[in-house]
Amino acid sequence: MILYELLDYDTLRVIWWLLLGVLLIGFALTDGFDMGVGALLPFVGRTDTDRRVIINTVGPVWEGNQVWFILGGGAIFAAWPPLYAISFSGFYLAMFVVLAALILRPVAFKYRSKRESGRWRSTWDWALFIGGAVPALIFGVAVGNVLQGVPFELTPDLFARYEGSYYGKFFGLLNPFALLAGIVSLSMLLTHGAAWLSLKAEGAVAKRARKIGAVTGALTIAGFALSGLWLMVGIDGYALAGEVVTDGPSNPLYSEVVRTQSWLSAYAARPWIAVAPVLGFIGMVLTVRGLRSGAEVSTLLWSKLGIFGAISSVGLTMFPFMLPSSISPNSSLTVWDSSSSHQTLFVMLVSTAIFMPLILVYTAWVYKVLWGKVTEADVTENNETAY
Amino acid sequence: MELDIVELSRLQFAMTAMYHFLFVPLTLGLSVIVAIMETVYVMTLRPIWRQMTKFWGMLFGINFALGVATGITMEFQFGMNWSYYSHYVGDIFGAPLAIEGLMAFFLEATFVGLFFFGWEKLSKVQHLVVTWLVALGSNFSALWILIANGWMQNPVGAEFNPETMRMEMTSFFAVLFNEVAQAKFVHTVSAGYVTAAVFVMGVSAWYLLKGRHTALARRSITVAASFGLAGALSVVVLGDESGYSASHTQRMKLAAIEGMWDTHAAPAPFTAIGFPDLEARETHYAIEIPWVMGLIGTRSLTEEIPGINDLVAEAEERIESGIIAYDALMTIREQRDDTPAQIRESFEAHSANLGFAFLLKRYMDDPRDATPEDIARTAADTIPGVAPLFWAFRVMVGLGFGFIAVMVYFFWRSSFKQQSYPRWALRLAVAIIPLPWIAAELGWFVAEYGRQPWTVDGVLPTALSVSHLSIQDLLLTLAGFVTFYTVLFIVEIGLMLKYIRKGPTEDVEETDAWEARHEHRLRTHDGQGPFANPAE
User: Fold this and answer.
1) Does B522 fall in a domain?
2) Please, which residues 265-324 of chain A have a Cβ atom closer than 8 Å to chain B?
């Protein structure tokens, strides 16, 4: 018997669909507050010391958090090569903007406090703002576009072609529904960043963060509800037609896809998935309440629940679709036809099973070592070494 | 050069990858050097070693930031710019990249924060472990990326699946233990060690020339010279191992590096200097050293190394075979459920050469339309640019031997001449700081340019690997990357120089107090220090 056949191909596909969710949610839960904190920086921090406190709340951890994003990219490449190939080239300019923002961020963290000049520091502060706000916005915009379908088609050689000019491809992304999704994701991560600052900072900084967070939290709830309504009435869904082969070769063109009335028909077919948006709402509402009352640890946890609920709603609503095509529905990528081979999925699962627990253990240890508030004294006493 | 999508994509990839590799080698080596210094600190408790750890650690941090930042681009631009490549080989190539994230990036990135922020929060031994984990993480990351790159040079453990129109993994262990990958890994990390050693040595030499921080600088040179000597020897030995494996895995690259047009009776000579001419297919004014090439390439006196002309003739045959495979593939696709058995057999027999048929796609949509002239022309395309490879390789090797000489000299002065260095040697150490970077970039140039016209050797041509983008898309991002990276580079160098000029924070009082206590302990046996309350 061949080792990798211990698990069926379709089981592995579902596992990797779940793992992709774990990685994306892991990214949003960890690096999400780094981005939120970056985007809040110019508004929450008034003085240089304020700002250094804010930056140092994420200073020792953002680098590890960002790996969730990089690993997300690597895992999509390894487990869902067509998704990696088509989405990243299809969203080419948007990806470039995200990259540019994310390249700015590490440099800004490291270099900001290495010179005394006020202009130097405020330039890097705005770089941190861009590095947090722009990706947070674009990730939401991308999700909004995926829900509407992306204009690509596959040739028989499985080469992906896109419709639209280069302006169209970028500005076409910025349609109303996608912008709404972008605002939801931005305000969600701003709230998450505020919850983090409320836990890790003190005094005026924490207070200002809570104040802004309560507003963005309310905005998130409204935006999330509105996009749900929009999906119900304004956006067509996708469905697989004919006999669905779940363990066939990964060739998207082998399956037939039709447009449906709405994505939300999934909730009629699988009512249990409603638990995801419900958890999302509960998390978001309790986050706002926590920010108002000044609760610290629990607020961060509720914010995590809100993000978990929101992201898994999208995934569960679309299942089994990953990247639907608006101009050639049959080219759409689904869980059943755009994975790696049986063996690669198995090898990757074994690697993940070995390393992911280790990662979680040592990450938890690092957070434990760094537990506690970052104070003004921490920054002023370690003027040389702190960010 | 014609500015089409393929050329622009190559230009952008070369630019971003080579820029990324300005920071990687220093990260690889400096992380280990810093860990060695901290180990000495924890073993001896001498404060000066902690000061060294912190000083070189800070320079490491400035460099690491840009390594991380530019590395993000690398992880994503396969999908952005090389969409068909990503689809076609993602089943194999994606795995090491993802494992790199799991095994290496998380390790180094999670602990690098504690390295800088954990001095007060951790015990000495805990902090030392953290530092070693950062070094380990950096080096693991090189392992997996070179397994991925090694597969592009020597695609083992995979076969084409006509159902999914892509390469799929048949043996993970073959990919993992690819001989090309293993040799490249040690060669590359050793190059990183040499880079960091030359850097530490050069900066320390500058301090000695200025008469600043001499105690710290002398100790740093000692560490750098011993570490660098081991690295420099390893680079050359594993470079030789790469040459040996290239003689049976990447024969065209090897022949091009040598400017060896015709197969020479074994053992082949090594052309030390010459002027390769692609038009005339000959190397002018060649100065040959008999036997050496045969010995390096085959480690025997009887095996032949094929020349370029023979390899082109072989490529012609493989193109013809590839066309048969392509024809069978089209039939398989049209009659998916009832493909005649003999078509399947014909495909199996020829599928290893399918990539050669794809080379024709540069000139025509359907490779089956190829005339004998097309085939001859395409076979000639399999010759990479011989002259640039020939020279890049020789400069790299020359530098490699130069580093050994420098390291031997400094190691000797450090071990047997009481760490005294003549001023000319210190000036030399400062002057050669940029050279390891040049050698490393040339190394990548030889590896990647030498593989052209393929992205995956013999499997997928570069011209077919790109995304469906427009010239404007690429011009915009290329201009963006160039501007952006230039600014960051200037900022980075500026900060490096600032902190080097400023020098380490030496707590002279602490060091002197420690020395006095140490002297006292050595001379007396009462177990009591000269101070009531020792700092440690």
Assistant:
1) no
2) none
What integer pLDDT is reported at residue B536 of this predicted model? 44
State the DSSP code for B384: -
ipTM of the complex: 0.92
Residue B296 lies in a domain: no
The Cα B149–Cα B147 span in angstroms is 6
pLDDT in tens, chain B (536 residues): 456 899 999 999 999 999 999 999 999 999 999 999 999 999 988 889 999 999 999 999 999 988 988 988 999 999 999 999 999 999 999 999 999 999 999 999 889 989 998 888 899 999 999 999 999 999 999 999 999 999 999 999 999 999 999 999 999 999 999 988 988 999 999 999 999 999 999 999 999 999 999 989 999 999 999 999 999 999 988 877 777 777 778 888 888 888 888 887 777 788 877 888 777 777 877 777 777 777 777 777 777 788 888 899 999 999 999 999 999 999 998 888 888 888 888 999 999 999 999 999 989 889 998 899 999 999 999 999 888 998 999 999 999 999 999 999 999 999 898 888 999 999 999 999 999 999 999 999 999 999 989 999 999 999 999 999 888 889 999 999 999 899 999 989 998 999 999 988 877 777 788 878 777 777 776 655 555 444 44
Domain of A54, in residue numbers:
3-234+342-381
The first and second tokens of residue A13, run together, are: 């596909």
The residue among B16, B117, B169 with the most chain A CBs within 10 A of its CB, best to mutate, is B117
Contact: B116, A385; criterion CB under 8 Å:
yes
Beta-bridge partner residues of A259: A238
Contact between B168 and A111 using a beta-carbon 8 Å cutoff = no
Question: Does the beta-carbon distance from A89 to B484 stay under 8 Å?
Answer: no
Residues 83-122 of chain B with CB under 8 A from chain A are 83-87, 90-95, 97-103, 105-107, 109-114, 116-119, 121-122
Distance between CA atoms of A57 and A370, rounded to whole angstroms?
Answer: 9
The reply to whether B59 and B120 lie within a common domain is: yes
SS (H, E, C) chain A: CCHHHHCCHHHHHHHHHHHHHHHHHHHHHHHHHHHHHHHHHHHHCCCHHHHHHHHHHHCCCHHHHHHHHHHHHHHHHHHCHHHHHHHHHHCHHHHHHHHHHHHHHHHHHHHHHHCCCHHHHHHHHHHHHHHHHHHHHHHHHHHHHHHHCECEEECCCCCEEECCCHHHHHHCCCCHHHHHHHHHHHHHHHHHHHHHHHHHCCHHHHHHHHHHHHHHHHHHHHHHHHHHHHHHHCCCEEEEECCCCCCCCCCHHHCEEEEECCCCHHHHHCHHHHHHHHHHHHHHHHHHHHHHHCCCHHHHHHHHHHHHHHHHHHHHHHCCEEECECCCHHHCEECCCCCCCHHHHHHHHHHHHHHHHHHHHHHHHHHHHCCCCCCHHHHHHCCCCCC
- Count structural domains, chain A: 1
In a domain? residue B28: yes
Q: Is B406 in the same domain as B376?
A: no
CA A48, CA A59: separation in Å to the nearest integer? 15
**B168 contacts on A by Cβ (under 8 Å):** 340-341, 343-344
Q: Which residues of A230-248 are buried (b: 16+ CB within 10 A; e: fewer)?
A: bbeeebebbbbeeeeeeee
Please, are residues A291 and A221 in contact by the beta-carbon 8 Å criterion?
no
Domain boundary among B381, B402, B436: B381
Residues B91, A341: C-beta atoms closer than 8 Å: yes
Find the CB nearest A78 among B70, B95, B111: B95
Which two structure tokens, joined as six digits, stand for B254? Answer: 């090897």
pTM for this entry: 0.92
Partners of B468 on chain A (C-beta within 8 Å) are 89, 159-162
